[in-house]
Amino acid sequence: MTGLAGRSQSTISGAAIDCGVAVHPRNIMAQIEGGIVYGLGHALREEITIKSGRVQQSNFLDYEVMRMEDVPDIRVAVVSTDNMPTGVGEDGVPLSAACVGNALAALTGIRLRELPMSPARVKAALAGKA
Predict the structure, then answer these.
(1) CA 62 from centroid of its chain's CA atoms
(2) Which long-range contacts (CB under 8 A, 24 or more apart) does 26-30 make?
(3) pTM (predicted TM-score)
(4) What do you get for the CA distance between the two ends of the chain, in Å?
(5) Are 9 and 118 spatial neighbours (Cβ–Cβ below 8 Å)?
(6) Is residue 89 part of a domain?
């Protein structure tokens, strides 16, 4: 978390995947990296608000996604085994929010149970803890 802004940013993200025989390891790494970035966006920023039955966000100006400057150093280890090859899919996506939530809890002692873990939610939780 950076100072009073309450903004969370991951600096390093790591993942290991065992998908059996790794037919195209570089493609697997790229898929996991992309999933992590997508998952971090969900965990930290992306939010849709609805007012009077209408979505308030109209484009990327007011729907904040991860930008390259926000992406952490991502390290992926592809573990190739003798098992049959399996799909890789979006394995990096669902784990990202859990990892961010656990890091936030370890750092602050609070658990946020709603996504995104926006600066406003982090500040409110910290204020409630005091």
Answers:
(1) 19
(2) 28/76, 28/78, 28/88, 29/76, 29/78
(3) 0.83
(4) 17
(5) no
(6) yes
